Amino acid sequence: MSVSSKIKIILVNPSHPGNIGAAARAMKTMGLEHLYLVKPKYFPHVDATARAAGADDILESAIITDSLADALKGSSVVFGTSVRLRDLSLPKVTPKEAAQIIIKEEKHSVAIVFGRENNGLSNDELEQCNYHLYIPTNPNFSSLNLAAAVQLIAYEIKIIQQSIAPPATDVQKLANAEEMQSFYQHLQQILVMIKFLDLKNPRKVLSRLKILFNRARVQKNEINILRGILSAIQLRLK
To answer: What is the DSSP secondary structure assignment for residue 6, as one 8-state letter?
Structure first.
């Protein structure tokens, strides 16, 4: 299975159907297939079909979800795109650096998340990602069209894919996004039980822990160990 077939392009709350169609066209020109739409405002729509310019198969197979968490199910490596630099501890990468990482992660499912046309991704949504994919732009005019951003990143993936030899096959499986979200829920329960976390005044404890574990790129066997530790604590407390 090729690297491209393991990549999801996720558009969060796209408001303009034309952008969805243009994004589908951008994907198809670079060999990407899997489009996910999180609560699109208008879809399907004639403008999406017109702007797809022949990439109708991408639109027809697009998966619509009610939340980003649903769209991320099964993904092990997640890039959240944002033109704005945020006060988060996620590793920041350019499109070229992201493409290099994706090629190295040949055995793992990858998701690239794009935010709303007017205000991008929220901090909470970025906390569900392993990397902050930052597109360098003119600081005096940083507005970048959604489909243009998809095209730019898809192009970098295509170029790197053509120029770099495939990685070694001995790769440990990473925990996917769904497994990580279940772990965070379990962790929160335990932190509340031991009175380390006060849900009425949580501050940024859980957010910082999410960023820490996302940055660590936790493997499946490691997440099983962590869940086992939490279960043992839970049993002991009871």
So the answer is: G
- Could you read off the pLDDT of 190-207 as tens digits, one per residue? 999 999 999 888 878 999
Instruction: For residues 113 and 202, state if they share a domain.
Output: no
Q: Is 153 helix (H, G, I), strand (E, B) or coil?
A: helix
* Mean pLDDT, residues 89-104: 92
Residue 9 pLDDT > 80, yes or no? yes
Domain end point (choices 124, 139, 163)? 163
Mean per-residue pLDDT for 83-97? 83
The confidence score (pLDDT) of residue 86 equals: 65
Range of the domain at 130: 4-163
Orientation of helix 177-193 relative to helix 205-216, angle to 10°: 140
Element (H, E) at 35: strand 34-38
Q: Whole-prediction pTM value?
A: 0.80
45 three-class SS: coil
Residues 6+ apart with CB under 8 A from 201: none
| Cβ contact 19:120 at 8 Å | no
Query: Are residues 227 and 186 in contact, defined by beta-carbon separation less than 8 angstroms?
Result: yes
8 Å CB contact between 129 and 80: yes
Helix (H, G, I), strand (E, B) or coil at 78: strand
Number of domains in the chain: 2
